[in-house]
Design a protein that fits this description.
Blueprint: E1 6-7, H1 12-17, H2 30-47, H3 63-76, E2 81-85, H4 94-97, H5 106-110, H6 116-119, E3 121-122, E4 128-131, H7 140-144, H8 147-159, E5 163-164
Parallel strand pairs: 1-3, 2-4, 2-5
Length: about 160
Amino acid sequence: VYSESARVELDPKTVYENRCVCIAPDAPELDFYKVLRTKIQHLTCLKGLNTVMITSPQPGEGKTVTAVNLALTFAMAYNQTVLLVDCDLRRQNIHKVLGFENDLNLIDYLIDERPLSELIVWPGIDKLTLISGGSTIDSSAELLGSPRMQNLMGELKSRYPDRYV
């Protein structure tokens, strides 16, 4: 299933130390993320949506940790797959929080036109893939609003019917 994705090994201790607690099935915080996941599923299902964006006005408010924990929770659902995309092009952190190195990210797709298959990483967690790593860029708003990004989001949202992005 993940043969086209680069495989990385996660160190559960590092992941947990970085507050990505939903990797542990007995984490006390897991139930809170499951409630959030269920609410998102109900709202998006009613509208036929499969995309969630985690954002905040300031850096350091927990977007990355929330996104990772929520993605892990979605991957635990029996009928969901998840592609977690790090769109913070100024501060690529998802791969750092999960404790692995990666040279490629969304910028490589948007600017250098690298194939999507080269960017997707499988962290060894069933039903979860991600895009994060590589360089950063200051003109992120322009790239995220570009036609290439719009086309990519259309493709990611429609490629698999059971996938949340």
